Amino acid sequence: MQSEARQLSLEEIKAIADRVAKTPYNESEEGPIAFPDYNGASIWKGGFGDLPHKVGLPRKERPAMDTIADSALDFVGNTPMIRLSRMHKALDMPEGVEVLGKAEYYSAGGSVKDRIGLRMIEDAERSGQLKPGDVLIEPTSGNTGVGLCMAGAIKGYKVIITMPMKMSGEKLNMMKAFGADIYRTPTEAGWRDTDSHIALALRLQKAIPNSHILDQYKNPNNPLAHYDNTAEEILQQCGGSLDYCVLSAGTGGTLTGIARKLKEKVPHVKIVGVDPQGSILAVPDSLNDEDRLKSYQVEGIGYDFIPTVLDRDMVDHWVKSKDAESFKMARTLIKREGMMIGGSCGSAMVGVAKAIEQLGITKGRIVVLFPDHTRNYMSKFLDDDWMASKGFPLETF
Ligand code: PMP
Does residue 59 lie in a domain region? Predict the structure, then answer.
């Protein structure tokens, strides 16, 4: 954390950020970039015992609809679970299988990442790390950014986001409207490259006084938001009865937090992880051979490193998803179920279909988490011209 007596104006902060973002990194002037050592789930191996979760946070309830809420933040999380009986029919799934979709697009900011944006901020406030007027900087594929920007707008923090070019203009404009400054980085940059979104966030944090990177890739509040809330919601909605949970992985916080709680409460539950082709999160690593580290179009999932908050020991079976099948599945979900879901939801649904096939599932209840909203992709997979320009087929199931 940088500290300085005088609080800079928003214009002064922006001027520093603009200058850093425009200047190619020069080690002799700026010193080395202190990349965190994201080395898989090292902080989770010992279980939750050593973590801040010991003090625990009660599950947040949504205000009753016949009352008045204090702010939009009261509507983060507490998302519906919807029976996907039309998809079941369209995909000709086994009769004994029931598939339920947890629809995170109903959260206030439209994604599962609202939960961690708010949780990381509130934890930093509680610990005294974050003070009024401070600056939040976060490298993100967009949805954590939206969550942080929404909470920042309401609570009065300046937010600066670094985001690869690949991510949609819809996310960019949403964050700008919340008052944030966004800096784009090359999609091809590896995470430790000096022009990556992670490197730029670290350089900005060094240059801007009273600024913090809450760091979703290693912040325990990322998985804990899901351990304390998302998983509890799933258990309540299912009356404690489910057999499989299918979760896509970006930082892996959603997967780790939900999987840990579910495995504690429902020991027989099997966790299916979904990793896009091009990413290297899946185990065994040979699953990642096809198109290893090649770029792909689905946003928000997959990485070229193993985030600290991803505990891959939680996953019983990994499925790889491809762009074309993910978008086809997303468009099918919209058309058949009337659900306004995003592209990685298509990947998650591909995960359901492939898990049924690969594991020979003939009965049981499968819960699949749908991370975000079609809103983020109106000019992308929702647009027939964009689909055609990428060579993706338009037909649905
Ligand atoms: N889907 C989308 C669209 C996302 O933005 C994210 C977050 N990067 C995920 C899935 C995966 O969530 P997590 O980071 O918790 O693994």
Answer: no
> 77 C-alpha to center of ligand 1: Å?
14
Q: Is 141 in the pocket of ligand 1 (CB under 6 A)?
A: yes
Q: Are residues 183 and 299 in the same domain?
A: no
Give pLDDT tens digits for 250-287: 999 999 999 999 999 999 999 999 999 999 999 999 99
Cα dist. 272→59, 287, 359 in Å? 25, 14, 10
Range of the domain at 376: 72-111+220-389
CA of 15 to the centre of ligand 1 (A): 31
Q: How many other CB atoms are there within 10 angstroms of residue 144's CB atom?
A: 30
**In terms of domains, do 24 and 159 share one?**
yes
Q: How many domains does the chain have?
A: 2
What residues in the chain have per-residue pLDDT under 50? 1, 54-55
- Ligand 1 pocket test: pick from 141, 219, 222 the residue with the most ligand atoms within 8 Å of its Cβ: 141
Dump pLDDT digits (tens) for 45-68: 655 555 555 446 788 889 999 999
Q: What is the CATH number of the domain that holds 306?
A: 3.40.50.1100
118 in the same domain as 107? no
Tally of CA atoms within 13 A in the half-sphere of 77 that contains its CB: 23
SS3 of residue 160 by DSSP: strand
Measured by CA distance, the residue closest to atom 2 of ligand 1 is 300
Ligand 1 atom nearest residue 140's Cα: 8
Ligand 1 centre to CA of 345 (Å) is 10
Residues 241 and 351 in one domain: yes
Question: Which residues does the annotation mark as catalytic?
Answer: 113
pLDDT of res. 327: 98
Q: CB 236: neighbour CB atoms within 10 A?
A: 11
Residue 137, SS3 per DSSP: strand
Same domain for 244 and 202: no
Q: Is the CB of 229 under 6 A from ligand 1?
A: no
Residue 205 falls inside a structural domain: yes
